[in-house]
Specification:
Elements (H helix, E strand, L loop, with lengths): L2 E5 L2 E3 L5 E8 L8 E6 L5 E7 L5 E3 L7 E6 L4 E6 L8 E7 L7 E2 L3 E5 L2
Parallel strand pairs: 2-11
Antiparallel strand pairs: 1-3, 3-8, 4-5, 4-9, 5-6, 7-8, 9-10, 9-11
């Protein structure tokens, strides 16, 4: 069965950086686009980035220039590099299988808290 395990979240100071990872299993990873999304308390789900199986990326405007997405198909791993973090970036971050809202599987999420 499809499993997505996001990890790497934590507490970081404003202006800091964090790299989230997502371990995928149960499917041919390179065949699928993958996405990152987040949800903060009291706010709706926000899609952040996706990457095609071949590595073509699309980053949402609101985080472009600060966030980047990458993947290692040999290791079945997805990554989200986050720089210049702000308190508004505080949320639970999810990796998904698929492109944006077409995603059909979600990981359990990892908490990112940006605070001094």
């Amino acid at each position: 069965d499809v499993q997505l395990q996001a990890f790497g979240g934590g507490l970081v100071q404003p202006g800091g950086s964090l790299t989230l990872s997502c371990a995928a299993s149960g499917f041919t990873f390179s065949d699928y686009a993958m996405s990152w999304a987040r949800q903060a308390p009291g706010r709706g789900r926000e899609w952040l980035a996706y990457i095609s199986g071949g590595g073509v990326t699309n980053i949402k405007n609101s985080v472009r220039g600060r966030f980047s997405i990458s993947r290692d198909n040999a290791k079945n791993m997805l990554y989200l590099q986050m720089n210049s973090l702000k308190p508004d970036d505080t949320a639970v971050y999810y990796c998904t299988r698929g492109r944006w809202s077409s995603s059909d599987h979600w990981g359990q999420g990892t908490q990112v808290t940006v605070s001094s």
